[in-house]
Amino acid sequence: MFSIKNEKRSILFRIDYLGLSNRICHPCHFYLLAEELSTIPLNLKTIYRHRPRLHNIFAFLFAGSFFVSRVIYGSIVCGYAFRAAALFGQMAFHIGDLKSFVFVVLQASLCVLTRLLNFYWTILIVKKLFHSLQSKKK
Fold it and tell me: Which of 5, 17, 70, 109 is the most buried (most CB within 10 A)?
């Protein structure tokens, strides 16, 4: 079954693999793909939305996998990437490579912004889970 979302992931995976194998990108770009593991239970939750038991199981799996893969694992990878970015930025600045320096600053900014976005989504997911648990108790 063709899906634009799946096709984009496939293309991104190929680009990251080629970048790693040709040594033109940092492994952190590839490691960040593991954050997408939480998408699997999210898609299954949507597929089984008409079956409440499976829908609820996949909803909790999504919340758990989102927290583990995006908040914990993703923050660790971004932390390492952020530390490496400082070194790469410093090297680019000292040799006068403005283009590389700008790319480093942009990637570091995106790293911080994705962390903020994932923390925001985590708050929304937790609120929704608590709301659904409270409504079931009533």
Answer: 70
